[in-house]
Amino acid sequence: MTDQTPIRAALSSALVPTFTGHLVDLLAPRPEDISLRDVAHALAGLNRWSGHLQSSISVAQHTLLVAAHVPADCRVHALLHDAHEAYTGESPSPMKAAQRLVEMAGGYRDDVGSNRCIELGLDAAIYHAVGLPLPNAAQRDAIHTADRRAAATEARDLLTRTEPMLDFGAEPFRQQISPWKTVDSEARLVTAFRQQFPQRQELWSR
């Protein structure tokens, strides 16, 4: 008979305890376990660039920077574009690029695929929780462009040095950015969420 102990341990380890007291199952996330309060709190505590900037900028601040530079019909989707990282942690662009290269080389394909599948499952649960469809192709393109410009801006203003090979495929924003305190990042993202979902109190109370 097969020993199920390792499987049970792995399943238990896939549960994420949240700030508001929920348990989010990364393998089967449920919309009723999603709280925008958790998302704002977690993203404010996550550093961009794996913490390698001269001064740390949070994923929450990055999210608001992206949302400020997309068309109005994309804004709410931009606010949610990294929301899954509240449960998975921040996944820096170099890691994503390395994963793609490994996949192209034919190695660890299942592991690479599973990472993205987990993110997609969380996205589906988050969007279902807030009552929105997933972004369409045009919205995804607009958010991707703003995301790349935000990354280029962060590199210009906060990296110790910017190598020529760091090609973001987009120009940085004109204005310079200054990192916010964690508490300010969280409060501003909470405010943005409340403005988008003023009638959805259950997103905060659960």
Describe this structure in words.
The chain has 10 helices and 2 strands, in the order H-E-E-H-H-H-H-H-H-H-H-H. A hairpin with a 5-residue loop joins strand 1 (15-17) and strand 2. It has 206 residues and is mainly alpha-helical. The radius of gyration is 18 Å and the shape is globular. Strands 1-2 form a two-stranded antiparallel sheet.
What's a quick, concise take on this entry?
With 206 residues, this protein is mainly alpha-helical. The chain has helices spanning 5-13, 36-44, 59-67, 75-79, 85-88, 93-104, 109-130, 137-158, 182-196, 202-205, and strands at residues 15-17, 23-25.
Give the topology string: H per helix, E per strand: HEEHHHHHHHHH
> What low-confidence regions span 5 or more consecutive residues with pLDDT below 50?
none
Q: What percent of the residues sit in helical stretches (DSSP H or I)?
A: 40-55%
Question: What's the tally of helices?
Answer: 10
Shape designation = globular
Q: Which class of secondary structure composition applies to the elements?
A: mainly alpha
Mean pLDDT: 84
In whole angstroms, how far apart are the ends? 41 Å
User: What's the quaternary structure here?
Assistant: single chain
